[in-house]
Amino acid sequence: MSTMYVVQSYQSGKRGKMVADTPVEARDVVHAKQLAERLASRKPLVVAFVREGDAITGDFEDPKLIAAFGELPEEMNEMQRV
């Protein structure tokens, strides 16, 4: 079982729809928060989360929210938090 820390930023697309940028992997919780805070100054939405699972089989638990900057979509508001 491995732990993945991911920072996902978004940019504004057509008609206000959010378009995901390429996700960035962080080293740990602190690094994920720092990356998210830095990106938040340039992006309308940034989310940092953690997932645990097996990268070989692709079996992962539901993601847990570390930090969020911007207006979260409804489905992200329901994410379990770290």
List strands and helices in order, with pairings.
Blueprint (H helix, E strand, L loop, with lengths): L1 E11 L5 E3 L3 E3 L2 H12 L4 E10 L4 E2 L3 E6 L4 H4 L2 E2 L1
Parallel strand pairs: 6-7
Antiparallel strand pairs: 1-2, 1-3, 1-4, 4-5, 4-6
Beta-strand content estimate: over 45%
How many helical elements? 2
State the helicity in percent bands: 10-25%
Largest sheet: 7 strands, mixed
- Terminal CA distance reads 18 Å
Radius of gyration: 13 Å
Oligomer kind = single chain
Number of discrete domains: 1
**Which parts are unreliable, with pLDDT below 50 for 5 consecutive residues or more?**
none
Structural class: alpha+beta
- The average pLDDT value, as a whole number, equals 94
Global morphology? globular
The sequence of SSEs as H and E is EEEHEEEHE
Total beta strands: 7
